[in-house]
Specification:
N-acylneuraminate cytidylyltransferase activity; Cytidylyl_trans; 27% helix; globular; CMP-NeuNAc_synthase; four-stranded parallel β-sheet; Spore Coat Polysaccharide Biosynthesis Protein SpsA, Chain A
Length: 163
């Protein structure tokens, strides 16, 4: 049959910021649960995976219907890149042809977003698709000692959050 399309969520236990943020509840559902539900509801995936190094995250992932890739210590460090982790996943799961990397921290992800992105790959011939977000934030800078002024900075944030 067609290509094997896998969804992959990277969710490390040892996040530097909020401890185990990937499974913190938001409106009663763990962050991980929101994105796994979107992946399941999209109906686009032959398999849905969470890559983790942590037992508690593994448990939540399985509760929400995902398979678990236990990543090696080599790709579980603070310095490990998403790409290295995805490459390891692909080496271990050779049946996968297309991998959709989903941020665990995107609870507003809608199944239709995944459907659109995958249509671009499956039907429109794109090799890769990624989403960025335009952030409108206030940044304050000190002009003279004690005088602060606000300057708006617009920048594209390329989902570099590691997970």
């Amino acid at each position: 049959g067609g290509r094997h399309v896998a969804a992959l969520v990277l969710a490390r236990g040892g996040s530097k910021g909020i401890k185990l943020k990937n499974i913190k509840p938001l409106a009663g559902i763990p962050l991980l649960g929101w994105v796994l539900r979107a992946a399941i509801d999209s109906g686009m995936f032959n398999s849905i995976w969470v890559s983790t190094d942590h037992d508690e995250i593994e448990k939540v992932a399985k509760t929400w219907g995902a398979k678990v890739h236990r990543r090696s210590p080599e790709v579980s460090k603070d310095t490990s890149s998403s790409v290295e982790t995805i490459q390891e996943f692909l080496r271990n799961n050779t049946e996968v042809d297309v991998v959709c990397h989903i941020q665990a921290t995107s609870p507003c992800l809608h199944p239709s977003h995944l459907q659109k992105a995958l249509k671009m790959i499956m039907e429109d011939g794109y090799e890769s698709v990624f989403s960025v977000v335009r952030r409108h934030e206030f940044h304050w800078k000190e002009v003279k000692k004690g005088n602060f002024s606000a300057c708006r900075i617009f920048h594209l944030s390329l989902m570099k959050d590691q997970q």
